[in-house]
Amino acid sequence: MSNSISYREVSKQFTGQAGVIPALDKFSFEIEEREFIVIVGPSGCGKSTLLSITAGLISPSAGTITVGDQLVEGPGPDRAVVFQDFSLFPWKTVEENISFGLRINKVPAEERRRLMAGSIDLIGLKGFEQYYPNQLSGGMQQRVAIARAFVLRPKVLLMDEPFASLDAMMRTLMQEELVRIWSEDKPTVLFITHSVEEALYLADRIVVMTRRPGRIKEVVNVGKICGDEGHWRHGSLNDAMANPAFRELQNRVWNSVKEEIESR
Amino acid sequence: MLSKTSKDKFERLSYAAVSMAGLFFIWWGVTALGWVSPFVLPPPWEVLDALDRISRGYMGGNLWVHFSASMSVVLSGYVLAVIVGVPLGMAMAFLPVVNRLFGPLIMILRPVPPPAWIPLAILWFGIGLSGKVFVVFVAAVVPCLLNAYLGVMETPRKMLDVARMLGASRWTVFREVVVPSALPILLTGMRIALGNAWATLVAAELVVSTAGFGFLIINGYHTFEDSIMAAAMFPIALIGAAMNIGFLILEKRLVPWRRETTE
Predict the structure, then answer these.
(1) Please, which residues have CB within 8 angstroms of residue B45's CB and are 6 or more apart in sequence?
(2) Cβ distance A126 to A120 under 8 Å?
(3) Residue A81 forms beta bridges with which residues?
(4) Which domain holds residue A59?
C-alpha cells in the first residue's frame, strides 16, 4: 500500500501572457504499488506537468496527490526523478553524483560505500567512477542518472522521457536495462514518453491522455494482454515486437494517440 | 592526443611571436633609420637603458620598490572588491529586496569610468594609499558583483530541482549546486576585475603617487625622458599579462569538470 499513488481531481492552470492556460483538468487515477505506469499523449497534454506535480516541484491548482498515505506537499527523497537531459551535476564525478543523495541523507560512510559499489555494478560503469559527466556518452550519463535515482531506494520513480535524447540503438539497450535495474527493487514507476513502442514494452498499464487540458482518454492494461507467460518486458524488445499481440496493441494505442494529435 | 595539443601550442606561440617580433622590428627600424625623432619615439636601446636605470634605482627606489608600491595598492583594493562584490552579487540573486535596493544604484554608477573617481578620492582620502585603494576598489567591484549575480542566476533550474528531490536542504543546495554552478562565471568576473584594477591603478598613479609604475611614467613625462616613460610601460604590460595568465591557470584548476573530454 505504501508505494501506491492516488490522484484526486488534480487540476493545474498556468497563468501566462496569453491568459489562463489549463494544463490538467480533474485528473483522477490510482496507481498500485510496484506498478509500472506509462503515460502517452500529444505534446502539451500536461504529461510533464503531472510528473512535476507528483514530484512536488510544482503544486496543483486543485486536488490532491497521495503517495502511500502521505500527501505530496513538496519534493522529497521518497520520490526520485530522471529527466530527459540527465541533469547530472557536471562538477561532480560519477561517484559523487550517485552518492550525493546518500551523503546528504546522512547514510553512514560504510553503508554508502557498499551501496555505491552495488550501484556502479548494476549500471555497468565500473572503472568510470572518477569520470566527470561530460567525459561520458549520453547512454552512460543516463545510466548514472538512473543509478542516482535508484540508490536512495525511492518508493516512486518518476521518469520524464528519459531516453528521448538517445539514439535508437542506445534507447533499446537502455529500455532493457531499465527493466533489469527496476526488477531489483520494483519501485512504483510513472514514466512519460512519446514512443508507443516504448510504452508497450515497459508498462503494466498505459494511460493515454487527451489534448490540452489533459484528461485520461483510456487506460490500456498491457500486463493483462501479455497473458500468463509473464510480461514481455522480461525478454528482449525484439522478441516482444515479434509478438502479434504487441503489434496489434501498438496499432490500437497509436491510433488512439493519433486521434488526439489530429483533433482540433 | 598529447602531441596534437603540444603542436597546437607551438603553432599559437609562433603566431604570437610573428606579431610581436614584427612590431619590434618596425619600432627598431624607424628609430634606427632616423625616420622618427628619438624625442617622439625612443629607440629600443634607449628604453633598455632606461629599464636598466630603473632597476638599479630611480626616483627613490629600484624596480622592486615600484613593483611593491603598485602591487600592494592593487591587491588591497582588489581583495576588498572581492569581499564586498561577490557576496553582494550573490545576495542580489537570492533576495529580490537586495536586488531592488542596489540594482538601480549600480546601474547608475557603472558608466562612470573608475579614473573619474580619482580627484574625488584624493579629496576624501588624501594622496596616501587609501585614495588609490578606493579607486581600485571601484574599478574591481563591478565585475565581481555582476558576475556573482549572473553566475547564481544562471544555475540551471533542473539542477536545483534534482538536488531538492534528493532531499537537499537550502544550505546544501547553495554549497553544492549554486556555488559550483556559478563558479566559472564568477571566476571570469574576478579575472576581469583584476585586469581593471591594475589598469585603473596605473591611471591613479599618473595623477598622484610617490612610487609605482604610473608614477615612473608621469615622472618621465615631467623630465622629458620618453625612454623612462616607455620603459615603465613594459613591467605594466608584463605584470598585467602574468596576472591574467595566472588567473586562467587557477580557473582551470578550480573548474576541473570544464576540461575537454578525454576520448
Answers:
(1) none
(2) yes
(3) A158
(4) 5-78+154-262
Segments making up each domain of chain B, as ranges: 62-258
In the structure grid, which three cell numbers stand for residue B252, read together?
A: 582551470
pLDDT recorded at residue B40? 87
- Number of structural domains found in chain A: 1
CATH number for the domain running over B62-258: 1.10.3720.10
Q: Are A210 and A50 in contact (CB under 8 A)?
A: no
Contact A81 B180 (CB under 8 A): no
The stretches in chain A having pLDDT less than 50 are: 1
Torsion of CA A84, A79, B257, B89, to 10 degrees: 100
Nearest-CA residue of chain B relative to A158?
Answer: B165
Confidence at residue A50, expressed as pLDDT on a 0 to 100 scale = 92
Domain CATH code at residue A52 = 3.40.50.300
Amino acid at B236: I
pLDDT digits (tens, 9 = 90+) for A185-225: 889 999 999 999 999 999 999 999 988 788 898 999 888 88
Residues 6+ apart with CB under 8 A from B46: B38, B227
Which residues of chain A have a CB within 8 Å of the CB of B164?
57, 74-75
CB contact under 8 A, A134 and B257: yes
Strand-strand pairing, A79-82 and A156-160: parallel
B145: nearest Cα among B195, B175, B103: B103
Q: What is the ipTM of this complex?
A: 0.83
Which value, to the nearest 10 degrees, does the dihedral of the CA atoms of residues B137, B140, B146, B151 take? -120
A202 in a structural domain:
yes
Are B165 and A100 inside 8 Å of each other by CB? Answer: no
CB A83 within 8 A of CB A160: yes
In this structure, are residues B145 and B89 in contact, taking their beta carbons and an 8 Å threshold? yes
